[in-house]
Amino acid sequence: MDTDVLIVGAGPTGLMLANQLARRGVRTLLIDRHAGPSRETRALGVQARTLEIYAKLGIVDRALALGTRGTGANIWAEGRWMARVPLGETGRGVTPYPYILILGQDDNERIMGDRLRDFGQSIQWNTELVGLEQDADRVAATLKLPDGTARQLAAAWVAGCDGAHSAVRELSSIPFVGAPYEHVFFVADTEVTGSMVPDQVNVYLWRQGFHLFFPMRGANHWRIVGILPPALRGRDDVTFEAVMPSVRAEAGAELSFKACTWYSTYRIHHRRAARFRDRRCFLLGDAAHIHSPVGAQGMNTGLQDAYNLAWKLALVTQGRADAALLDSYEDERVPVARRLLDTTDRAFRLVVSDGWLAGVLRTKLLARIAAFAMSRESIQRFAFRVISQTGIRYRASALSISPEGWPDDAPRAGDRFPWLRLKLRADGPVEDVFERLDDTRLTLIVVGQPPPSETVPLAGDLLRVLVILADRANDAELTRARLPQPSFYLLRPDGHVGLCGARVEADLIARYAADRLGLRPARAL
Ligand SMILES: Cc1cc2nc3c(=O)[nH]c(=O)nc-3n(C[C@H](O)[C@H](O)[C@H](O)COP(=O)(O)OP(=O)(O)OC[C@H]3O[C@@H](n4cnc5c(N)ncnc54)[C@H](O)[C@@H]3O)c2cc1C
Fold first, then answer.
1. What lines the ligand 1 site, CB under 6 Å?
2. Which ligand 1 atom sits closest to the C-alpha of 285?
3. Buried (b) or exposed (e) across 39-49, using 16+ Cβ within 10 A?
């Protein structure tokens, strides 16, 4: 076998997968048909859940230093300020990163590329996947090399992180079901002054569409995203100068443009691969799902596809788990993509639909509804969990086991384990529990009871135990997060709960690990 995992595509999804596999010691080959990293900013919003994953990868500080924290979104309609959607305040207590980090895709790719080099791995540029054939034990891939010659390579698994026009998807004959939208987007990185609330997202709704202003690094730097006005549709040569009057008309005549460093138009589609896997080949990121950029979810969803698959692929390639564990990738990520496409499609149609009535709805009602909704804390919290992707859960997965009668409002199997700050030593300080989780292992969190007296027979130091002490400060935090006492939570490496219950027993954990995760006991290795 030439490599355990051939990763096709070194965009954000492929880079995340390569990093996660490299830090777990898996042999990979990362190829990309381009000559080097993309210089376009493209995606701009990094969500809180992605930042939590960046923290585990050791790159969050660099991302935070380079990005701008968007703590809220301001909604304007026909030139008047209407409402503010708070993100910072609402997310406090949910995550260490209660904001959207505005950081271009090129910066994200650079940071992940640098981290990959720390693990001694590099990207093979100018190398294109052109053929795939599978048998029971391996995939034979044909690569076109920089000098134009072809090379055959044997890989145990192939990860298609090769974007919307995925060769892995096409060569696996997986349909990409969906359609293009009729609207054409424009995106411009500008230096501009105007009515925008600094350091926050500004949404300008108008009768025939919308303009989004994202704060970028540097004084008066804004990314503007919008749809082309009707008069300019159907033309291929629309420049930013041609778009400017409509932006001024809706976002304020006082807008003063000093520079535009990048401008592009693009047609978007909403499509989902009919399957995310064909035997030994997987689809992740844009290869598996594409949708409107409303909500800044695209890049983040690809990064989480990679985080979901990486720990499973690592355990399987290292012979620690049965290959059946990989079935859960598709079972867990297809519903996430389906929901994402539904919600972004609905939101997108609402903000772009043509017609007089839709225009009135957008400019007169939408902002008022948003303002009313955002005055309610429960709606604010719900919105934050959806946008930040901290609310993604896999409750229906075969890997998720909660006991009968488990309280409805308590965290349960499939959920991302909540962010807690607790005292973990009687004489110690309050600590961030996320910092204590090792995402290359399983963690057993034991609350209000002693840990199991017997060792759980898991292979290769795969289980860490964290005991939450009985303490008044801890009680208040556990009550806030609605964790029952006594209880236990077995966390998967990606921080989602696999198994939970009241009384912890070594036997129960061992059975879950063998039956659900397909982990082999130490003596089997
Ligand atoms: C103009 C523009 C603006 C956008 N704005 C936003 C935004 O504001 N918010 C948002 O969330 N998303 C946005 N997106 C979408 C976002 O860029 C994607 O979701 C993200 O790039 C997906 O990452 P990926 O790694 O899955 O795929 P990609 O970034 O497309 O990477 C795929 C890689 O695979 C390589 N490749 C393809 N075929 C092969 C092959 N056969 N062999 C080898 N390599 C191959 C390509 O060269 C490429 O480097 C935007 C996209 C565009 C085009």
1. 8-14, 31-34, 42-45, 105, 128-129, 161-163, 167, 187, 264, 266, 285-286, 293, 296-299, 302
2. 26
3. eebbbbbbbbb
Q: Whose CA is nearest to atom 2 of ligand 1?
A: 42
Q: What is the pTM of this model?
A: 0.94
Please tell me the distance from the alpha carbon of residue 246 to that of residue 264, in angstroms, as a whole number.
16
Give pLDDT, residue 238: 87
Select from 101, 98, 45, 108 the least CA-distant residue to 385.
98
The C-alpha atoms of residue 71 and residue 101 are separated, in whole angstroms, by 9
Enter the DSSP assignment of 365.
I
The closest-lying atom of ligand 1 relative to the alpha carbon of residue 168 is 41
CA-nearest residue for atom 11, ligand 1, is 298
Residue with tokens 């969990």: 385
Written as six digits, the tokens of 359 are: 């225009």
What six digits make up the tokens of 159? 């990860």
Tens of pLDDT, residue by residue over 212-255, are 899 988 889 999 988 888 788 778 788 899 988 888 887 776 88
Structure confidence by residue, pLDDT tens digits, 335-356: 999 988 888 777 766 666 666 6
CA of 183 to the centre of ligand 1 (A): 19
